[in-house]
């Protein structure tokens, strides 16, 4: 029977924290002692080359670092973090399924997708694959659209192909801009425009409506990527041809390029380089919190295209959790 693979003692604190989050989720009691991680790592220790005092100090350092990481994630994600560590910093507990809202469900979906391929801790035979993986990626597009609404405090549409309403490219563009009103989509594409265009490299379109209806507002164009090759994708290169080929006149609002991913980027150097290349990067450490704002925005009258699929995100997370429990316990 497969089981989660314990990360090595010298692995990053982000991976060790992910391991314990998954372990807490599949536990029948919904919690796991942090010492379970270091007890397994203790077995990896080379006692012939390293002293016992060094070993104990290193293991205690890992326990302390991981407990601090859980507190940091809780503070950064606020109510969208679906775990809690006890005051002593010794036990991680998953919140009950009945308490999972869209923010917490988006976090868990992102956690599972982060380890769907090439994971050091989730065996490939239990990772999402085939139709299950395809569905999870579609649902991450849902979460990204909700997050875009939260980021802009406004309207958000899922524009990536295939679209949720099965609409054509130009039909969808006209539907969105009837509401946006900044710029005007062409009735017919330019002769130089690409044929059989799907989404022109744009997965999510969102903006904040100005009360005076004037142009010039927060306007987000995002790429959504849940595969390991996300760094090679960028919406930046698509924005200028998108506006040139399909609008007359183009929007006055200056577009903000964004990348939305389920992964957590722990290394700030990588994050900075990603932001320089891709635009604003929304990862597992902030996207769920933005998605959590969507239901109240919907109640306030903003159009958020995938809001009716929020329950489907939670349902998928619950089902996949049960799959992991069945296969790994």
Task: Give an overview of the whole structure.
- The chain has about 325 residues and is α/β, with parallel strands linked by helices.
- The chain has two domains: about 15-130 and about 320-329, no CATH class; about 140-310, no CATH class.
- About 45% of the residues lie in helices and about 10% in strands.
- It has eleven helices and eight strands.
- It has helices spanning about 15-25, 35-40, 50-75, 100-115, 130-150, 170-180, 235-245, 270-280, 285-290, 295-300, 310-329, and strands at about 30-35, 85, 90-95, 155-160, 205, 220-225, 255-260, 280.
- The strands form two sheets. The protein has a five-stranded mixed sheet with strand order 4-5-6-7-8. It has a three-stranded antiparallel sheet with strand order 1-3-2.
- Strand 2 (about 85) and strand 3 form a beta hairpin.
- Helix 2 (about 35-40) runs antiparallel to helix 3 (about 50-75) and helix 5 (about 130-150) crosses helix 11.
Summing up helix and strand content along with how strands pair, one would put the structural category as: alpha/beta
DSSP summary: helix tally: 11
What is the mean pLDDT? Answer: 93
Strand content: 5-15%
How many angstroms does the end-to-end distance come to?
A: 8 Å
Oligomer: single chain
- Return the string of H and E elements: HEHHEEHHEHEEHEHEHHH
> Helical content, roughly?
40-55%
Poorly predicted runs: none
**Record field, number of beta strands:** 8
Radius of gyration: 22 Å
Question: What order do the strands of the largest sheet run in, or round the barrel if closed?
Answer: 4-5-6-7-8
Shape: elongated
User: Biggest sheet: strands, sense, closure?
Assistant: 5 strands, mixed
